[in-house]
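Training component of the fellowship. As part of building independent skills, the fellow (R.M.) carried out the full modelling exercise for a liganded target. The chosen ligand was MF3. The inputs are recorded below so that the supervisory panel can assess the work.
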Amino acid sequence: MNYEELVKKYTALGIPTPTKKMIKTEEQIEGIRQAGIINTKVLDYVEANIHAGMSTEDIDALVSKKTKELGGICAPLNYEGFPKSVCTSINDAVCHGIPDSHTILKNGDIINVDCTTIYQGYYADASRMFMIGKVDPIAKRLVEVSKECLDLAVKSLKPFSRLRDIGYVIEQHAKANGFSVVHEIGGHGVGLEFHEDPFIYHYGKKNTGMVLFPGMVFTIEPMINEGSRQVYLDASNNWTIYTDDGGWSSQFEYTVLITETGVQILAH
Ligand code: MF3
Ligand code: CO
Ligand code: CO
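Fellow's submitted model of the complex:
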């Protein structure tokens, strides 16, 4: 069935469908795949070099240098005024931490490094957690569970499954482990722009939401909190999100593609 026939079929069933723009062409998918390969190499490079005693600005320099070396562009830099090339979010920072020279990684920190690469106009977006030295057992468990949430969500994906199943799987696993899911920030379509539709919920009811067609490319990036899911925006920089209760927060992010037969991870 082509796009129009599929829309007709699902509309008749009362199920929301993706817009045509959400379905990437083969050529676009190849471009995003190349951006993803670079983005993964950049995160691998961070993983090999991150250590206690370095500043988050040092991480920014690593990301900027490696991305350029591989022919890419760091999407965060100047994105809606964001001042750096990567997001670095430590401990109770949920996301959108801004690298700086006086924030020094120390033993026991957990940090999310979120890289987005533009290559020949195509975007890929992924993030990983790193544990610095010896980490509190609860923080370590949180990091593991947040990764499991993402991997379980990816495993559950199938062509023509429903968008809210993603969040259902994530929320179930987080809650089963005594953790909570941030609601305010979600995954997103990605590829031709940094943030595209649809919004990808990390919580919710199964068997609801849009049907996922082959050719859709989006991120899944659940933010899992140790305590309350409530968060606030740092008013001093208007970017960084923190947990309300000061508890740990952890996040991994992939860029994924829905295929005719399953799912491919384009950036991790
Ligand atoms: N990479 C983040 C995401 O996963 C977005 C960061 S926007 C920035 O969607 F401007 F802070 F870089
Ligand atoms: Co993202
Ligand atoms: Co990201």
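The panel noted the following from the submitted structure. The helical segments are 3-12, 26-49, 56-69, 137-156, 163-176. The chain has a mean pLDDT of 98.
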